[in-house]
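Final paragraph of the annual report: two paired records, presented back to back.
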Amino acid sequence: MASLLVRGCVFGDTGETGDLLVEGGRITARGPGLEAPIDEELVDIDAAGLTALPGAIDALAQLAAPRGPGAAADDLGSGTIAAARGGVTTVVAPVVPGLTETLDVAFHDAERRASGNVLIDYAFAVGLGRPTTETPERMQGVGFHRGFAGAFLDLDAVDQAAVAGPGAILRLAAVSDVPITVRAAGRLGAEAERVRVETLSSLGALADIAPHIAPLVSAAAVDALEDGIATGSAGLAQLCLDELPTGLEVRPALVSEDDRAAIWAALADGRLEGVVSDHHGEPMSGADAWVGIASIELFVPALLTHGVAAGRIDLPTLCAIIAERPARRLGMWPEKGALQVGADGDIVLVDPAATWTVDPAELEGRGKAPAWHGHTMTGRVVHVFSRGDQVVADGAPLFRPGRGRAV
């Protein structure tokens, strides 16, 4: 593996200027004036004028559904190529067992589909399927595998887990000793979201587990989170968009400016962990009543634009939101989530002052992110490195599917 020397960048976590050296896929030195190692394959990057961020961790991107009629356009292949362009170097995708599947079968099927296809590092959050007395044993069995990021429950899904109710699912996750992410989107607005957060916190206390709820979108939900057991993350679309093109729908729905301001404030002061893309691109063939939007390819640029450039957060907070906080919760820290010596060489070099307009012709994801077309961004992803391997160069992805690793 070639060594990587990034010279003259601004470190987003501290504001200092210096160099980063990556050897064997890990950061081995950080500071000014680093000497290049003797390596014939050395990749030497002049990063003057660019800011280095730790590779983003998208803790909820819907990319792992099996292909079939009506399936979303982006899968683990195209979706992770789009993710890399968005500054994401690690993605967590939910896996929901089918009607005839157990959770371990669904997990191993997702592993098989990921093999040889994924560009960046990845893990799966696994639904429990139809709960039985064997569920804890099956969950513990997959828990020993790299690529397992805990249990997953979607309150709006119509699947076998729905027949058991959230309380039973949380207790099964607690008995299995695995973390659980709950997608609690809903259709009834802020008051209903507040009730869901309060209920999940209460059920978590009874089940002896702290569920992580994503995405949260309202001020009322943040207020409820403060008094409970649960933790939460915001949704990228609800955080950054104030309207959608005709025909597009996202759940949770877009919210008021007051709610967005409250969510940004909660991210800034740490009441919310971070941001998830909740990427769910419309099928290329189109689909009636489709709910969900593509957004992972704009992950870091959108947060630079609506967060840093807008003065809602600073660069160190951005680093915490996209990397350190989710890495700690997911048990990936300090391997992931930092620009520290010993961490994986997951580095995103951005030009925080660059302005550009989102053009569908220039997007790599099959979903083409129609909700974002024509939006002006301040902040562009220039180069992306995953474990020291360059996966984006001058904004263009380097197509190397299969190099991604389960974490």
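The closing record of the year follows.
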Amino acid sequence: MRKKVSVDIQLINVGSSGDINTISDFPYGMALITSYLRSKGFDALMLQYKTDCEEGTKQTQLEEILENSAYLYGFQVNFENYPDIRELIKLIKEKNPDGKFVFGGPFTVSLYEQLLKNDPNLDAVVLGEGEYTTADLLGHLKEGLDSWNMVQGLARLGPDGNIIMNPHRKSIQDMNA
């Protein structure tokens, strides 16, 4: 029996003070995906997980993440935050072993094969713009479908250990949409 979830998706911005406190480093892509998912009726949380803060603050952030179990957890990955994301995912999996994990962002486009082959907790990588791909994937997960091969714009590891790249999704033409 699948554990009851409290939200559809958590998009978690993991980073140090620059990634979270500086407006030039604000995760606009993640914010746009959150907004789009909400407009489509999904219960989407965008949370911060600041890695270089006081332990009490970090614990409060972690509690919010762990208390809101989700079908899907999304992370924008870069070289600096990847080790912290891996540790956070281990903690989430202890609390919600059925949760699925996806990575996105510019870093993942060129390194998705290495990430998928070397990170056993990673379920897929979103290649390209994430709004439509994430909404499509969430719809499948909420319906209990494991047909990730139907979701355009994803790369994932197949049962034989080979990388499976689904067809690319067309770019969003109307950015106001």
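Helices lie at 17-21, 28-39, 55-67, 82-95, 106-118, 131-142. This concludes the annual technical report; the extension proposal builds directly on these records.
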